[in-house]
Structures are given as C-alpha cells and as structure tokens.
Amino acid sequence: MNNRDSLRERHTSIHSNDQLSTLTSSNLLVCLFTSPPDGPQRPSVSVSPSAEMLEGDSVTLTCSTDANPAANYTWYKQGGTSDPRLLSEEPQLVFSSIQSSDSGRYFCTAENQLGRKTSDFISIDVKYGPQRPSVSVSPSAEMLEGDSVTLTCSADANPAASYTWYKEHEDSPRASGQIFTITNFTAEHSGNYYCEAQNEMGRSNSTIRLIPSSVIQSQDGWRVIYYPTYVCAAKGSTVDISSFYTHPPRIRSSDIKDRFWFTKEKDGEPVDLRTDSEYSDRVTYGCYSNSKDCYLTITDVRESDSAEYKFRFMTEKMGGKYTGSPGVTLSVTGLQVQVRRLNSTWLELTCHSSCVLSDRPKYVWYKNEEIIKTGSSLPVSSASTDRYSCYLRGSCGHGSPAVYGPQRPSVSVSPSAEMLEGDSVTLTCSTDANPAANYTWYKAHRTSDPHLLSKEPHLVFSSIQSSDSGRYFCTAENQLGRKTSDFISIDVKYGPQRPSVSVSPSAEMLEGDSVTLTCSTDANPAASYTWYKEHEDSPRASGQIFTITDFTAEHSGNYYCEAQNEMGRSNSTLRLIPSSEKGGSTWSTTTTVFASISAVFLLIIILAVLYIR
C-alpha cells in the first residue's frame, strides 16, 4: 500500500450516530454534515396582529414546528358538538376580513413521514358592536290601563352590550338595563320607545310602539298613527315605516277593501306606490294578520325618494276612506367624508351625512377599497397617498365618494402652436383630487425663489411678451396633500429689435486700417445679419461681423446692418469716414458733423433774409 492509499484509509470513516461522513481524496479532506431525520415537535401557534381583534380586521394564524423532513400543516376549527372542521392545509390561516362568526377555538397539526403532532388550542375572540336589538313586550296581548308592562331588549354583541331605554322626543333616558317595566300603564305612557344597545365597539337601537286599548277605543273616528314621523336614511339603505290605524265602531274589519301608501296624487287621487315606476321592485308593504298594524319597506333608497309618505285605507262604506295626514317625512342623504387637520402630521376623517341618520348607524372605513376599521372617524397621516371612503355597516355599494390627495398635476397650453409676441396664451393646471384641489402658478428663476403668479387653475396672458418666456410650474393642494407639476417652457417668438452697431477700432480710422463692424440684436429665433452700403442693391457681407481689411476713402459712406428672422426684420446705420490718409488728411466724422450743422445754419439765414424782403 502506497502513502496515498494509507492516507485514504486512515481518513475515510462513517459515523452513523453523528451522521458525519468524512472522505479524503488525495490531500483533499471533505466533511459532509447532515441533520438526523426527526418527526415534528409540538407545533407552536402565533396570531398577527396580537392586539384586540375587531370585526373587519385582517388576521393571520401561523403554525410552525421543527421537523426533518419539513412538516405539512393542517388547520382546524373546533366544533362545539361536532368533529373539528378542516380549514386549510397551509402553514398560515388568513382571515382577510374577520367576522364575529369566526370566533372560536383553532388548532393545527404538523406531520411528516416520521410522525404527527397537534398544537395547543388558540382562542379567537372577535370584538363587534351590537347588532340591531330585538325588543319584546309582555303582556303581548291587549294592553289595558293599569297593567304592568315589561319591555325586554337583547342584542348580539362582543363585549356584551349595556342597554338604555328612551321615549321618543325625550333626551333623558327612562331606564337602564335589559328590562324596562312600567308598573301602572296609562294613556300618558303611549308612544314610541326605543332601546339602545351599546358597547365599546358601537351602538344600535330598535323601537316599539305602546298604545293602551282604552286609547284606541276612545277614538270615535278615523285615525292613523305613524312611527317614526321623520326618517333620515343613507342612500342605498333600507327604510321601514310603521302605521297603526283606527276607524269608527260602525266600520268592521271585513269592510276594509284596500290599504296602501302614497306620496303623489293624480287628478286629486292618491297614487299607490306599487304602481309608481320610480319605486319598481323596491317597495313592500302590508299589514300583520288580524291587525291594524301596517308597514312600508323601501329598499335601496335614493335621494329622489325624499318625500312625505302617507297611509290610506278604504272601506265599502259610503265616505269610508281615510288618509293619515301629516304623514312620515323621509330624507335620503349620501355619505360624505369630512377632513379636519389635527396637527402638522395627522388628519381626522369623519363620515358625515346632511341629516342625522335615524338608526344611529355604524360606519366601516375602507382604504383603497379594503376594510380597515369601524367607527365614525379615522385618523390618517397627512402624507398619505391612499384613497379613503366610509360605508354604512351592512350596506353594499353605497359608500361615500373616496377622498384622496392630488395626483401629480398635468399642465396644458392653449394655443398649443407657436407663440408669437402679442398672442393670447392660457396655461391650465389640472389634477384628480377629492376634495377638489386648490391651484397655484409659479415662474421659476435661476438665482431666486420661484415667483408666485396666480392662485387659479388657469394662468392667462392676454398679450404675451418676450419677457414672459421662461419655465413655469403649478401646484395642486387639498387637505390630504400637495403635488407639483413638471416644468413647462414658454418660448415667445418675436422679430429683431433695432440692432446695435459698433465699429473697431473705435478711435480715428486711417486709410489702410482694418475696420470691423459688429451688429447685434435681440430676437427669437436668433436673427441672421446682412450688411449693405447705401445706394447699393447687392449686400456687402453676411454675418454678424463685417470687416474691411484695407480701409480707403472709397469705403467712406453709410453702411447699414439688417437683422432678420421669420418674425420680421430691422436695421441700423453707421457712417464711416477716414480721418486721414497715410501722410495726408481728410474729413473726420466730427468735421463732417460740423459742416452739416454749418450748412443748416446758413440755410436758415438765407431764408430769414428772403422773408424780410
């Protein structure tokens, strides 16, 4: 055996207990570590969020364990008297919008080829406000004056609700507790009573009407009693209105041939709501068997349903028709979100209606169309870019319009074609926002802060000037945020201003000198330049600079520079006269000017002499 084989033998071993394999090839030692197979440990269960769970929250239960091979998980809900119900075969059990019915005890199992273990139970306790209370009265038969009357209220809620009793049109409660007893019932106790169930999550109420038989029997004539007499309802909700009618003793129940509700009249006759196309498939009404208690139910109410509703019943007898008037006033309102700034970083959103909703509603808040919270108000960050809306709990599809901060504004210019000096030009800033955004226009400056120009969506130049060229931007702002547009560049086109002409050298020009004329002007687009000598049709040169390399007396005269672009042209003139020739003398510019002045003065004297003669 050679040294290499000996080395391999000494360093090759398998330890089954530690699952450590050591292999040596040549001078290379390789160690492979593997975990031993093992069945699952007892799974642990966690819940997120770990705080109090409210109806509508997103809740996740997670099952985890240590196992090799990896475990498969199964979630169950423990039934009261039945076998556990399988819910999921994933490690996480997710409730995107947890409901009161999801309360209960849950457990999970973890299983692989080597075993199966079950977790401890975890209890889910979903908090929710009271459902609409159920109100019962005892005795349930005819109530006589002097009787003891007991009202009982119950509502499903978690935590358990507390109860308060009110009589209609009274601010102070009549009683507290689930049971309210009137020991000596009289006509003065007649009216509508409502029970309000409340816990920390919200409140709800239900109404019952109490009328002693003696009061009904004492009404020798026609009568309709309504409850309630006024209803404020949210658009899309369902409205219930009740009535109780009486008639003279000579009228028997069998004489009643028709009972209906109406809001309109045609040719002096009430129009049955069931025949009104505006209420098609949305109206249900009737009367309880062998009873003068009647009801009207309107589903999916609209703002156009706002009206006075009256109940009418008719008999076979002569003059046996009666309408209860005044009726019930219904006001239908849409929900709106009001925004109030709490401080520099927080806002408060409140679900609002134009009238006080009659059923003391519970609101649900949505963020980007997902439920996030219940309650009438919602705090949000002033930096939020999300969309918020509120709904009545249990009402589908009729929430408030969403409120949200402005999107990045877009800027448009009209007319969109080339802008010429003197044109009328309008810049428009627009964005999508609710509440509607307020706009501000600015002009940017290179070395200073932007200059505020307008607080309107439109920035109007009735006669735009070259000085208006530059970069502009606008901002859009409401209570939920502020956004800035991209820059828009305004480039006003205009013809050349009167050119400025300079000569070099600017001192005396001598014959033989090189003379350079320079022309410059302000124009947009930039001007092109052409040089002419007076009385000559052909140009002497083109370009901003014109050079005469060997200036002589023949070059004397008036030169003019013409600046031109597509918007127009303009020119300026310069007279060139050499001061002297090399070794001689000629007229200078000053001499020429003096001679001109002398000639004018001489002409004035001659004219004066002729005038005196």
Automatic annotation (TrEMBL):
SUPFAM superfamilies in alphabetical order: Immunoglobulin (SSF48726)
What are the alphabetically sorted keywords of the record?
A: Membrane, Transmembrane, Transmembrane helix
Report if keyword Transmembrane helix is assigned. Answer: yes
Looking up CDD domains in the UniProt record yields: Ig
| Domain annotation Ig-like: ranges | 43-123, 133-209, 326-390, 409-489, 499-577
Q: Does the keyword Cell division apply?
A: no
- Name recorded for this polypeptide: Ig-like domain-containing protein
Which InterPro entries has this protein been placed in? Answer: Ig-like_dom (IPR007110), Ig-like_dom_sf (IPR036179), Ig-like_fold (IPR013783), Ig_sub (IPR003599), Ig_sub2 (IPR003598)
Q: Where are the transmembrane segments?
A: 593-612
**Position of the signal peptide:** none
